[in-house]
Amino acid sequence: MKPPRFAYHAPGSVDEAVALLGRYGGEAKLLAGGQSLVPLLNFRLSRPAALVDLNRIAALAYVREDGAHIRIGAMTRQRTIEFSPTVRRRLPLLGEATTLVGHLPIRTRGTIGGSLAHADPSAEYPAVLTALDGQVVVRGPRGERTLTAGRLFQGYLTTALAADELLVEVRLPAMPDGAGFAFEELSRRHGDFAIIGVAVMVVRAGGSGRAAARLATAGAGPVPVRLRAAEEILERDGLSDAAIDAAASRAAELVDPPSDIHASAAYRRNLTRVLTARALRRAINALPPPERDRAE
Ligand SMILES: Cc1cc2nc3c(=O)[nH]c(=O)nc-3n(C[C@H](O)[C@H](O)[C@H](O)COP(=O)(O)OP(=O)(O)OC[C@H]3O[C@@H](n4cnc5c(N)ncnc54)[C@H](O)[C@@H]3O)c2cc1C
Questions:
Q1: Ligand 1 atom at shortest distance from the alpha carbon of 166
Q2: Per DSSP, what are the bridge partners of residue 30?
Q3: Which pLDDT does position 293 carry in this prediction?
Q4: What's the average model confidence in pLDDT over 44-73?
Q5: What is the pLDDT of residues 245-266, one digit of tens each?
Q6: Where residue 296 falls among pLDDT bands split at 50, 70, 90?
Q7: CA 254 to CA 230: how far, in whole Å?
């Protein structure tokens, strides 16, 4: 099918884009990589009066180190993120997650801002934003505001962005040196959205065997779930096999996944347990040895 008729605008700046969104009073849609929006238009599931194409706003595509944070412009292509030396060095969890997003042509057009604004619960980037305590910067007619992942994702394909607001930047704290990480997911075919995905980061806290852990899911509910109570088990009990199994079991209790044509809720819950344990083991195996072992 073809999309219904729409007006088309290609602004050269964020201010112009915001003004256009205001002019259409909620009836315009932003076009980023088009990898989610264009199918919705073609199936006529979305019928905007106008498209505001962000592809000519060059100032929205960058990966920048800013002290302890990495700032990524909303129009940065997923492919750029996949090959960014800065991401590889300081946000390797984001780099690994990117390789799991669709296929090469999708990552070549798709953007980080489009993925987060689309808020598909099975997408990898929302889970990474949640696990790493990232934030997004949003610009609208009333100025700029910053949203945490918890505030951004409101429900299935729904964010806290107003109709006249635009996501301009993603800010992620750089991962500590030596952090272990893994993004594990199960999908039916390579490149499909995950049935369940689990993002993990683990950091040793000194030589005491203690650790800090970050865990978040994709596909286990309408929004990504931060598995704080599972993280606490690892922080309290360390990184032993027993602690990993206990954290993974707790993870399965913390999610409330849906049943749909792809999988039942029970299957997704069990998968959350299995993939949490798998991701934790891989992340922990990649950690440098504890300080006391290195001193010996
Ligand atoms: C076959 C296929 C497989 C895929 N597999 C995966 C997968 O495994 N994992 C995954 O995560 N994704 C997957 N995707 C989706 C892909 O990652 C998209 O790139 C992404 O969801 C949307 O990014 P986009 O830049 O293409 O945004 P668009 O499609 O252009 O826009 C998506 C939505 O976000 C809004 N939007 C875009 N940019 C902004 C902004 N800066 N501010 C506010 N709103 C904005 C648009 O108005 C629209 O509503 C797949 C897509 C296809 C076609």
A1: 42
A2: 52
A3: 53
A4: 97
A5: 999 999 999 999 999 999 999 9
A6: very low
A7: 8
Asked if 183 and 275 touch (Cβ cutoff 8 Å), the reply is: no
Residues 91-145: tens digit of each pLDDT: 999 999 999 999 999 999 999 999 999 999 999 999 999 999 999 999 999 999 9
- Amino acid at position 47, single letter: R
Distance of alpha carbon 214 from alpha carbon 97, whole angstroms: 15
Query: DSSP label at 222?
Result: S
Q: Which atom of ligand 1 approaches the CA of 36 most closely?
A: 29
Contact 33, 26 (CB under 8 A): no
> How far, in Å, from the CA of 268 to the mean position of ligand 1?
23
Show contacts of 65-68: CB within 8 Å, 24+ apart. Answer: 65/90, 65/174, 68/173, 68/174
Is-contact 231 250, C-beta < 8 A?
no
Per-residue HEC secondary structure of 157-177 comes to CEECCCCCCEEEEEEEECCCC
Whole-prediction pTM value? 0.96
Give yes or no for residue 1 having a pLDDT over 80: no
Let me know how long the chain is. Answer: 296
Q: In what order do the strands lie in the sheet with 196-204?
A: 180-186, 196-204, 211-218
- With a 6 Å cutoff on the Cβ, whether 31 touches ligand 1 is yes
